[in-house]
Batch of 4 targets.
Target 1
Amino acid sequence: MKKIFGVLAIVLFAFNVHAQNEVELKLTLRDGNLVSGTSKMSSISLSTAYGKLEIPIKNVTALDLGISTDKTVNDKVANLIKQLSNSNEQLRRTSYDELIKMDIKAIPAISEFIYSAKYEPSTYVDYTADAALSELQSKYNVGNDISDKDVVSIDYEYTMGGTYEFTKIDLKTEYGTLSIPKEKIKHIDVLFSGDNGSGDMTFKLLGSKHISSNTDGGWLKTGIMVKQGQKINITASGEITFASLSGSKYKPDGSVAGSTTAAITDYEGDYNAGNAYPTYGNVVYKIGETSSQMLKAGAKFNGVASASGMLFVSVYETVYSASNTGSYTVKISVK
């Protein structure tokens, strides 16, 4: 019986390891540093007010990490702030020094107490709760807009707030494996490489937003990292009504719905091909956020990347209107 249990345990362990996907992450730390590398994870565990969610890592695009506190920290902060009103200067100084030596969790605790009905500002101006809060914010490079919630971006369309249940991330970098505590991380970008076995990824291009001439979020960041020489496959379907084009309904291949004009043929060719210039309604793509090289994908595209970087997609139109309606569903795979 013990042997059977042992074999079962090994099988379950092997399955668990296999289920962990190695994803590429870019971490923005609270001290301003950027760290990139890979980590093994299959999902994000997010505790919300509506229950616990297990979000598959392939659907996660980014995370903004807040700073949560707990009852122990809240109670300690409250007691120390109250002592800042004591007539004994030495006690005030000692309490203040203890406050500014606390970890990052003290920041939301101090802020919350200051704005609560329990707070009575000290009549002394030498050691104050506001000054302690300012020192801690400077120490940990935290602004006034910090949230106590972790916010997960899903499929570039939705966000969900809650608590991401982890204490650290083990990140494999070119300098070795780094173990980075949660409290030191401000933001995480989840990236995907064409050679990580993630398979096809699907995105929605909104007519009211993802237009190439829209300078505010017109290009959708896919999170897919491509390398020079890799094959890119893009297929798209759907319909967008362009208010900017007299309400005409366009399809990803550039044809107008209801028009007698023959549909534009699918384009297949190299990324560098000069004859791949887009027409209105086409799905277009580029490699790198600052790249000015915008090329046609249309409804079906097979090509080769001539550069390495992040893949961005959009819908071609020279005039942007937020009154556009409809959307395209775009599937992308990189081999």
Note: Residues 1-19, 262-275 have pLDDT under 50 and may be disordered.
Target 2
Amino acid sequence: MDFLNDMALFVEVAKVMSFRQAAEKAGVPSSTLSRRISALEKAIGLRLLHRTTRKIELTEAGQIYYQRCRRIVEEARLAHDQLTAMLEQPSGVIRASLPVDFATQFLTPLFAEFTTVYPQIRFELDLTPRTVDLVTEPFDIAIRIGRLPDSQLIARQLTQFNARLYASPNYLARSGTPATPQDLVQHECIDFPKSGTWTLHSQAATLEIAVQGRFVANSVDMIRRLALLDQGIVFLPAAVVVKDVAQGKLQPLLPDWQGSSVPVYALTETRLLPAKTQRFIEFLQARLGSSGKQPPTFTL
């Protein structure tokens, strides 16, 4: 397909009837331009230009070729300009798979802000706990939280967070306040499914604490609400409960201890993304990464 580039060079020469001017516009040496036009003529089997020391003229074949090629080159440039415009003002539909609680609590206002900046972009959102297949299903992006299994997918980190311990004042008045991580085994702890162990870190140590309680749930919001109803101790990021703590509805516990860092990723099938998806990922990285807010924890 190299002849397509040579075709575009021939059109530039035919427009100005000058190798020097066409070479300057194309950014190549005149000798290179002349050599490539000669190669194009050889490939076609017809002479396109009459060359003399004084001027250049189109042959009959050159006139026919120029009229056809000029339209082809103009269409190619138009297509390029249209794609450039898409990069400047992306449009289309983004199909995204999102964890339910993370999307409703943290992404909803960001969707509204993003579509204000890019009004030509629309969203189709799948808020289900299942792990979609980005290769075989029609999704542009998936948001995932936690350590990722090995795969061929491309992961871009959006933010990360650390969980801390909280409980309501009424629960603590009834059951006592834990003074050490080991005290948690004596308390009602509201946990996620398939967990049963909370990993706590301080500057000096890391502990694995086996916890139990009457409630296990796969919803961050339900776990938070159960804590507000005095049902036990929860292990959640500060952003989830910041208003509850400020209003005195929940109280931080064991301030010297926190959970492991948990990353939040945007997953795509490929690195070569359309502008709409690239802009959305960059937007999330800017908002989540620089805001200081910590997203909640989820099971994948």
Note: Residues 2-88 form a domain with the Arc Repressor Mutant, subunit A fold (CATH 1.10.10.10).
Target 3
Amino acid sequence: MNVAPALIVGIDEAGRGPLAGPVYAAAVIFHPARPIDGLRDSKLLTAAARERLAADIRTRSLAWCVASADVDEIDTLNILQATLLAMRRAVEGLAVAPSEALVDGNRCPALPCRARAIVKGDRDVAVISAASILAKTARDALLIELDRTFPGYGFARNKGYGTPEHLAALERLGPCAVHRRSFAPVAHSAFAFAF
């Protein structure tokens, strides 16, 4: 009797800490016959290496999906719950149903399969590293687009994080439509209720 191999999905997020933009999550199931070399935590890779690996992950994996939770969901639910929602959406978007999920961090979203949280999983587990890379490259691409739509905040450079440049722009310009109003630096900016 042939037994199908366990389909393990790696899940990670990008963008929990920024002051602007959605939070992204990715889910990846490796193809057993198509290994991917060079996987690491996305934060430890250069932007060029992340882009190259993201292309490999998309073409060599058995299944992958990137999903998000938007700014309104972050402000309504809180960032943790919005992150778990994005993770669940990523798994639900897979073309193949996994039998087990390995999730970076210490919390798991509600999933229809067994799930295990792994602290520093993006560093230690290749399939979670792959999800980390897809989530980060997708979110970074969006923030570059948002920089053109909302100039002045430096989103292409800071990716929405609270850098000195971004905080100064918040005080000067006030928040824009993609700022997270529930985050303290946005809520306390001089024009917090301008929109």
Note: The chain is about 40% helix and 15% strand.
Target 4
Amino acid sequence: MSNVTTNRATSAALTVLRGVNKDLGIVQQQVSSGFRVETASDDPTYWSMATTMRSDQSSLSTITDALGLGSSKVDTASTAMDSVVSLLTQIQAKLVSAQEPGTNKDAVNADIQQLKSQLQSVTQSASFSGENWLYNTNQQATTQQSVISNFTRGASGQISLVSINYDSSQTLMIDTADPSRGLLTKNVDASTFDTSSSGSTTARNYYLLAADSGTTPTGGTEIAISSSTTDAELTDMLNVTNSLLTSATSADSTLGLMKSRIDDQSSYISKLSDAIKSSVGDLVDTNMEEASVRQNALQTAQQMGVQSLSIANSMANKVLILLQAK
């Protein structure tokens, strides 16, 4: 039954149309923004989870940068250590050649001094971002280096940083403040390599380089030869140089291991960041295929609602015409 003042059919059509318009507005907003859950009011639980995960992803991006910086530092130190190992190998070869009868030891020594100058240059230039793991001038040497590699989030939400640590005392080649801390500037007791049974307790300490400041270890003799250098002294120098070469090779190998760990961690962080990004998308992103189908359906329902309202209004108009005719 139609009523002039209260048209129930029109009211019902309006109610349906309002609901359709509201749903259509929500779907259109989701399509235009790309987010199914854009604000906390859309879904507090999913929004909170997504916000926390986005924060984690941002932290991972910072860690990626830190790993890149750390990798550059290790690369610089490793490249310099490769050169140190190569130069020590050449010095050792020169000392071996000096033991040959008739060799011009003064000429060999000139070559050795050139190689030692290169060692000075290599260690001094091994600096990146203000850090040099091979060369120290400070009274207090840094013996521990670290690179931030990850973070963990505890059950209560607290964050703890994880680092890759390295004992940089292994790569300290020259120390101008305290020569005994530098591999190339410290005294090495050659008698520890003597396998003879002479029982001599005479100290035979040798060091390879004098620090730039001219500071030398107490009671040591620099590895340098001349025509008066004896075969026994050459043997001592050769043994000490071989010991330095072994230590330098070990330090270089450790740097290579650290570089490998950083590369592995960088790859893991990249994959973890991608996984978090995908998970956030699953929580809050709009499913465009589904939203497109729903949008088309709601637009159709909207058109039908408008037509229903038009029909309801036309029925009331016809009743009014009949009343006016009377």
Note: Residues 1-34+286-320 form one domain.
